[in-house]
Amino acid sequence: MLVAEFDYHLPKELIAQEPVEPRDASRLLVVDRKQGAIYDAQFSEIGNWLLPGDLLVLNNTRVVPARIFGRLKTGGKIELLLLRRVKPGFWEALTRPARKARPGSDVFFDGYKAVIEERKPLGMRLVRFEPEDITELLKKSGELALPPYIRKKWARPERYQTVFARVDGAVAAPTAGLHFTPELLEKIRGKGVEVAQITLHPGLGTFRPIKVDNVEEHRMHPEEFEILPETARMVNRAIIEKRRVVCVGTTTVRVLEAQAERTGTGFQVLPGRGETDLFIYPGYQWKITGALITNFHLPRSTLLLLVCSFAGRDLIMRAYQHAINSGYRFYSFGDAMLVV
Q1: Are 204 and 95 in contact (CB under 8 A)?
Q2: Are residues 108 and 214 located together in one domain of the fold?
Q3: What strands, in cross-sheet order, belong to the sheet with 27-32?
Q4: Nearest to 266 by CA among 252, 287, 290, 285
Q5: Helical axes 250-258 vs 302-311, angle rounded to 10°
Q6: Whether 310 contacts 292, CB under 8 Å
Q7: Same domain? 302 vs 260
Q8: Distances in Å between the alpha carbon of 59 and those of 151, 168, 229, 259?
Q9: DSSP state string for 67-119
Q10: Structural contact between residues 142 and 129, judged by C-beta atoms closer than 8 angstroms
Q11: Do residues 238 and 245 lie in contact, with contact meaning Cβ atoms separated by under 8 Å?
Q12: pTM, entire model
């Protein structure tokens, strides 16, 4: 399968540079897989498309200010984007400029030192910090790592967090959740929709571009997740009772699908924490997900492939073209899509 089959042209003016206010004022493109139909709506109306008994599953990760700036012994500046903590004091990171991050190099911050220990695959570096606990460094000097297509520095970092963000650890926001307000969630609950939460910390696995020609050759970078026992019970009860599991975001999808186990009567979700490198693309056997809320994704991205797997490439590419023709706003701060 060729990655080029999942390409499309997006006019630059449709890349959202800032979010709309209020959060649920964004537009919503509804895609009906069974009918092959496409509908225009507002995100505040999403409750019209949810059913009593649905289980809405959110990703409660919180984005950390993981971009920090230091100096080398030579005085040169260097940027570190911390992807995940491997063990106390040790982090996987991307560096810019990468050529300056040679193994053995020291990087100095305000009261901290980082040693580049080794080169790793995918352009990463293993970095050791002294002292080990860098909580205060990130709090004092760290910046949120906004995507490169957002050209201006964003002055309201809380707007890059969901209203239900609780667990620190993400490098990138689970952007499908950015459209929800507390009032909208309460309205959805009032309709008889259950709400559960999982945790997956989006990092390199989520935003790393595909650099191979054949889809099957791409490998996902592992990302940390957790499903608490209560969430697993809620998901499994919904499956047994043949109620729909509605995933908010591709990160939620990947956690639930990765933790799915076949039983004598179907599938169930296992609680637990760990890492997942699940790569979902057309041909994947879906196990848990009954509907998907997501944003519009970059061409040739793993996220677009996941959505095409769920609804079919032709339907999704037709929906994307409709969104472009209709002036929808794309990417992290853009509009949303509901696939039912």
Answers
A1: no
A2: no
A3: 37-42, 27-32, 336-339, 291-295, 245-248, 55-59, 194-200, 223-227, 272-276
A4: 287
A5: 70
A6: yes
A7: yes
A8: 26, 12, 15, 15
A9: EEEEEETTS-EEEEEEEEEEETTEEEEEEESGGG--TT-EEEETTEEEEEEEE
A10: no
A11: yes
A12: 0.93
Provide the CATH number for the domain around residue 166.
3.40.1780.10
Single-letter code of the amino acid located at 116? I
Average pLDDT of span 277-293: 97
- Residue 76 sits in the same domain as residue 207: no
Q: What is the dihedral sign for C-alpha 65, 67, 70, 72?
A: positive
Distances (CA, A) of 268 to 54, 225, 249, 255, 265: 16, 17, 20, 13, 9
- Does the CA dihedral 95-99-103-109 come out positive or negative? negative
Residue 161: φ, ψ to 5° = -120, 145
Best CA proximity match to 57, nearest among 208, 168, 162, 213: 162
The stretch 269-293 carries a mean pLDDT of 97
pLDDT number for residue 176: 97
**307 lies in which domain range?**
3-63+156-339
Which DSSP state fits 290? S
3-state secondary structure 180-216: CCHHHHHHHHHCCCEEEEEEECCCHHHHCCCCCCEHH
Taking only the tens place, the pLDDT of each residue in 184-207 is 999 999 999 999 999 999 987 788
